[in-house]
Design goal:
By secondary structure, the chain is of the alpha/beta class. It is 40% helix and 17% strand.
Length: 382
């Protein structure tokens, strides 16, 4: 079974982050995989992919040259002759669908966020039947994919994109007199809600930071919003928030915190929050994507509505006023994520997906979801 794994870019984080783990499961089931990236961007996902033994082909192009990207992908697929095209994110999916139709190759598509931009949502809804099997990165995103793209249940599956590691570095409990360390991981983009966090902190500053334990906030990531965030911090007179740039050691970053924040306007699974819980951190997050299913409000952390600085400020004020409760919430968070997303559960969900893959048979017809490919098509000997 030869799989062309098509992704938007090899940018660090986001949908590129779980590629090594996902493809390892596929390879464990006999697949041969090449990764095709439509553009490079910062290229920070490449080392992990290559360390995993993946062959990665990166197009020398940008984000908006769709015709050139389509021609490149079509030529690469014609050269490599895969049995299956696996796509991730809207651009890769739309182009992969076109190539799949042209070449008679079935397509499987990840859905990492069920709220694509309006144009992509219209296009994906129009072309959703060109994908034989849709896979959500969580159960919530799988359900929303069915609703918003009109995908029937028979072509929907969930593969939660997080495999919890019990051996990950653990955060140390806050001690009286110590500065509370708060942090968040993610690209500096409006969807991540960093501006909402700054607005919430501005409200707390107006009340007086001196009423809380001393604290600092570290925002790790890079992106187009850096200048705007710096300006917002300066305007609010907030000096204890630091934009620390790209983080190449996220586990160590998380283990040095006492509280994790995720004020996003939209998310799918949100790997960063689950990594924070894995590190034994309580979390203050918005009710988007899978987060309200993973974070137990008042037990492992707190949930607030998205785009609501007042609600965020209220819960943050409580946590800053009661830092002695954070460690116990972090212990509960770690137990929760290990229970829901252990390595065995990740591998089992992947195996269920493999059993449903639509593979192009020797006759040129595709085995649809739920049908078993022939031994010849699956690469097994008789």
């Amino acid at each position: 079974m030869r799989i062309a794994y098509v992704i938007n870019s090899v940018e660090g984080g986001g949908a590129a982050l779980p590629v090594p783990a996902v493809t390892q499961v596929l390879r464990n089931h006999g697949a041969t995989i090449e990764v095709f990236a439509l553009t490079r961007r910062d290229g920070r996902a490449l080392p992990a992919m290559r360390d995993a033994g993946l062959q990665v082909r990166v197009r020398d192009g940008g984000r908006g040259d769709h015709v050139a990207a389509l021609a490149w992908l079509d030529a690469e697929v014609a050269r490599w002759r895969p049995d299956l095209i696996w796509t991730s994110l809207s651009r890769a999916t739309l182009l992969g669908q076109l190539v799949g139709r042209r070449r008679g190759i079935p397509v499987v598509s990840w859905q990492h966020n069920a709220i694509p931009n309006p144009v992509n949502r219209i296009l994906l809804r129009a072309t959703q039947r060109w994908t034989a099997l849709w896979i959500g990165d969580s159960h919530s995103i799988t359900a929303l994919t069915g609703q918003r793209l009109g995908v029937d249940a028979a072509r929907l599956m969930a593969w939660p994109l997080f495999a919890a590691d019990a051996g990950a570095p653990q955060a140390r409990a806050w001690r009286p007199g110590e500065t509370l360390k708060l942090g968040t991981l993610g690209r500096l983009h409006p969807v991540k809600g960093h501006d909402v966090l700054i607005a919430a902190l501005a409200r707390l500053r107006a009340q007086g930071f001196e009423s809380f334990a001393p604290f600092e906030v570290r925002i790790a990531g890079e992106g187009t919003q850096r200048a705007a965030l710096e300006a917002a911090l300066a305007a609010a007179g907030i000096e204890n928030v630091h934009l620390v740039g790209f983080c190449d050691r996220p586990r160590e970053f998380l283990a040095d915190l006492h509280l994790y924040l995720q004020p996003s306007r939209s998310e799918g699974l949100c790997i960063a929050v689950h990594e924070a819980m894995q590190a034994g951190l309580p979390t203050l997050v918005t009710t988007v994507g899978e987060l309200p299913f993973s974070v137990r409000d008042g037990d492992t952390g707190f949930l607030v509505p998205p785009n609501n600085p007042e609600a965020l400020a209220k819960e943050l004020a409580w946590m800053l006023s009661h830092p002695e409760h954070l460690a116990a919430m972090g212990v509960a968070a770690r137990a929760r994520v290990l229970e829901r997303f252990g390595a065995e559960a990740f591998a089992r969900a992947g195996a269920d997906v493999v059993a449903r893959l639509p593979i192009r048979l020797a006759s040129g017809q595709a085995a649809g979801p739920g049908r078993s490919p022939s031994r010849r098509a699956s690469g097994q000997s008789a």
